[in-house]
Every structure is written in structure tokens, then in C-alpha cells.
Amino acid sequence: MDTLRRHWAVRIVVRGIAVSFIVATVAFSVLRFAPGDPVLAILGDQASPIAAEEMREKLGLDGNVLTQYVHFLGDAVRGDLGTSITSGTPVVRIIGDSITPTLSLILLTALFALVLSVPLGLRLALAPDGLFSKVFRVVSSFSLATPGFFLGLLALLLFAIRWKVAPIAGFEPTLPGALAYLWLPALVICAQLIPILARVFRSSVLRTLDEEFVEAAIVRGVSRRRFYWHYLVRPSIAPTIALLGYVTGQLLGASVMIEMVFSMPGIGTRLVRAVTTRDYPTVQGILLIFGVLVVLITTLSELSIKRLDPRAGGDR
Amino acid sequence: MTWRARWRDIDKAFLVGVILLGLIVLASVLVPVLSKFDPSSGTAKPMQGPSSANLFGTDNLGRDVFVRAFAATRLDMAVAMAAVGVSLVVGTLLGAVMGLGGRSKLSGLLSLVVDSINAFPFIVLALGVVAVVGPSVPGVLAAIILTGWARYARVARARAAVIANADFVHAARLLGYSRTRVMIRHVFPNVYAESFAFALSELVIVILAIASLSFLGAGVRPPTPELGAMISEGRIFLAQAWWISIFPGAVLALAALSIQLIADGYERMVRYA
After folding, report:
1. Measured between alpha carbons, how far is B72 from B248 in angstroms, rounded to an integer?
2. DSSP string covering A26-56, please?
3. What is the value of ipTM here, to two decimals?
4. Distance, in angstroms, between B237 CA and closest chain A CA?
5. Interface contacts A/B by beta carbons within 8 Å
6. In this model, does residue B192 exceed pLDDT 50?
7. Where do the domains of chain B lie?
8. Which of B 95-114 lie inside 8 A of A, CB atoms?
9. Which of A76, A81, B30, B249 could form a disulfide with A285 if both were Cys (CB 3.0 to 4.6 A apart)?
């Protein structure tokens, strides 16, 4: 039992669970501590006290904050996030119905980003001052300054409207079909992700090149393929995956924008609709899910880093 | 210092950024005043492409996109400056207190709040705040300040923790100066320099966030000219009249690029100075 408790994987997972509770607390706090009264926002200033009290109860805003908090956490752990006040559907069902497009988008984006930025970073590291590196620097500062949703709109205009190689809107939850809807949005997010990841991977490779085992491998005449993968990529990839894990969490933010641009029925689209219709239980539930997802992704990336490069510390 | 040496010391990207931003600010102040078109009422023929009379064309209500885009830039810049200014001051102060507080209960609790706010994607939490405050200029300000201060606090916390152990701070303590004096006169100025550089790069993110919120319909509402809202309004006409969305988007991207260049250049100059 004691060895189990000391195992790095267990420690990483336990910390993830602890952070999830903190994240839930933030989701809970937004409705209570942001300036303004949700009840009056829904009913208007002229609402009768009785109606206001009823609405307060419906939103879980009655009683003192501590009791509300205990109720909220208890229900959330049991998988009850309340019901939408605009449609009457349980918030958990709303989330379940809309999470597939979002998760597949994030997954494909992370995959594209990793597959594209590793060779790119390697190329940059092997010729740090070449023309290729200079072109990369200019292109990346342009794509980083362009707002993601605008980039998405440009892509929509060119690829979907002008050249008709991608659908304009929608999603399909079956596998080969989904890819047709996902590749363009994923590439749009990648345009802003790859410059960052490739730069980080490039500097890790530069650092690895200074290691003695690289020199030793060259002297020993290790085969080309083995040299690249075992001696350059694998010892250098940990920081890139760590960053990918962190950035993927933030990607959920980008995916809200991209889902709206490409009219995908994902969780981001639902969040925006809930915000504009002041559907507070749904807003609160989706905030919670976003937070938990970020924690989940970070925890997964920490686990995979440890697995790939045991030198990496798990106790930061 | 001779002019030539001074010229060499200035980062070229920084210079390009300053000139570009200067032009955009100048245009956003002058265009709405000088143009014969009004940013919020349509007086021209609707859905006209770019021409010499309407440089960026006209939108579906016959409003001149050129005037609207620059009136919108003025609003976006003002809101972004206000939001960044408040979060910079509040976040840096709280962060410095946390960094100096070490293991006290209050700074531990504050740190927890800071880290959990930072765990969320910025735009998602901002959307949550807008849901309560309402889609409006004050709503956007509240959303960005309430979620943004935590990032400055993190930067200032790390910096203050380093400075708290610096020799000159120990010296000031030994000289018998009060805690408050050490904090205000010795720690704060050193924390602030770094936070300011961070605020410049943060300005880019905030401008894009303001436009993003409005694009989602959870920010500044039409008919007020705002870049994100304009892009969103033109979205349905993308196939027939691309200029309604694309020009405001280009102005937004240029503004963001110029500030990005300034922020990067400033950081390089400070680091190598």
C-alpha cells in the first residue's frame, strides 16, 4: 500500500482529483460573486418578490452560500448538474450531447500539432540560422497576431466557399464522416499552436545536441532512423508534450471560437448559447466541465511525459 | 550618445510596431471625425464593394465599413487599455503581497484562488462573468479584469519571491525600515518593471479577447461599432460580400500584430540593455 502511495502515477492522479475540486469551486463562484444578480437579470427589475424567490430556488441560489456550496458539490459528484432553465433538460444530458464534436476536435488538433511540429522543430534545430528559420519566424508572428476566429473565417471563405473542399457548417458523429468536418477547424487551431510548439521542440533538440550521448552515437555510427528517433526526438520531446498538455487545456478556449465559426454543435457553442440566453445552470455546469477537462488533459500529459522520459520530474 | 549609436540600440521590430500602431491610433481618432459618413447610420447604398468613395465597401445597412472599422478600433483600444491598466495594478499589488507573504494563511489562500482562475481557459471564464453582468462595455470590462488580474498576480508573485531574498531587501530590513516601506520603496519598483513588460504582451491577448467576446454576441452589442461584432454581423454575407467581415478582421489583426511587435521588441531591449 505504501509503495503504491509513493508511485509517481498515483501521486499525479491524486493531485489531479484535488485540483478538480478547486476548479469546481471557481465554476460555483462565478455565478455568486460576479457583480450583478442573476435572478433580476432573468426576470427584470420589476419582478415580484415571490417570483424572484422561486427563481432563486430553481437556480440553487437560495439559502446561505456555504449550504449552496455543499449542495452543489454533492450533486456534482453524483453526476447531477441541475436542469437548464430554458429547455428543462438536465445539464448533464446537454453536456453529453455536445461533448463529442469538441473532444474529437481537440484530439485531432493535438494530433496534427504534434505530428507537424516535431519534424518542423527538428528542421529548425538542425539549421537555426538558415532561410527556413527566418521564414518560419515571420510567418509565425503573423499567425500568432491574427485572431483565431478571423483565421477561421478566412479559411471558411477560401476552402469552403471559394474552393468547396470543406463543408461550411455542421458535424457528423461517425468516424470517417467526422473527419470531413474536422480537418479544417483543426488546422486553423494548429496555425497558432504549431509556431509555439515547434519553437519549444527546436530549443530542446538544440540542448540535446550538446549531450555526450549524441556525440557518442555519431561516433558509433548509429543508423539514421535510430539516431533521429532514439537520440534526438525521444530525449527532447518531454517539454513539448508538457506544453501541448497545458496548451490543449487553453485550446478548449480556442475551440469555443472555432466551433462558433464553423457552426459545430459542440460544447463551446452550447456555452455561448447558454450565456446569451442567461441559462445559468447550464453555464455553471459547462464551466465545471471545462475546468475538469483542463485538469484531465494536464494530468494525462504529465503521465505520458513520465512514461516517455523518466528523467522528467513529476513533483513540480 | 550619437544618433547612429542610438539608432543601433533601438530594436527594429519595435520601431515597425510603434509606427504601425501610431498609424492605426491616428486613423482611429481622425477617420470618424473627418469622414462624411456616420459610423452608426447607413447613408450609402448597401452591400457595395470597396470603391474610392467607400474604401472598405458598405455593409448590409449601407454603413461605411471604413469609418465603422476605425471607430470600432478606438473603442476596442480604450476598453483594452482600461482593462489591462486595472488588472496590472491590482494583480501586481496582490501578487507582490503573496510573494512576500511566504507561508502565511492569507497568501496561501490567495495563491489558491490565483492558480484556480488561471487553470481555466481565459475566454471560457470571461463568458461566465458576462452571463451574470450582461453583454455590454461594463460587462466586458468586468469579465476581463476579474479573470485577468490572476495572471499578473502569478508573474508578480514569482518575481517578489525572488526579490524578497535579494541582498538589498535584507539590507533595508536591517536598517530598520518598516515592512510597508520596504515593500513600497524597495520591492514594488523591482516587481513592476517585469509586470509592465508582461502587460504589453497581455494587451494583445486582451484586445483579441474583447473582439472574441463581441464576436460571440457576449460583448459589445450592435449597433455600437466594435471589430468583433462587425466581423460577426458580416459573417452571414461572407459568400456575397466578404469585405463586411474581412476588413474589420484585417484591422484587428494589424492592431494585434503591431502591439505584438512592440511587446517583443521591448522585452528584447530590456533584456539586453
Report:
1. 9
2. HHHHHHHHSSS-HHHHHH-TT--HHHHHHHH
3. 0.84
4. 11
5. 144
6. yes
7. 11-30+63-243+250-261
8. 112
9. A81
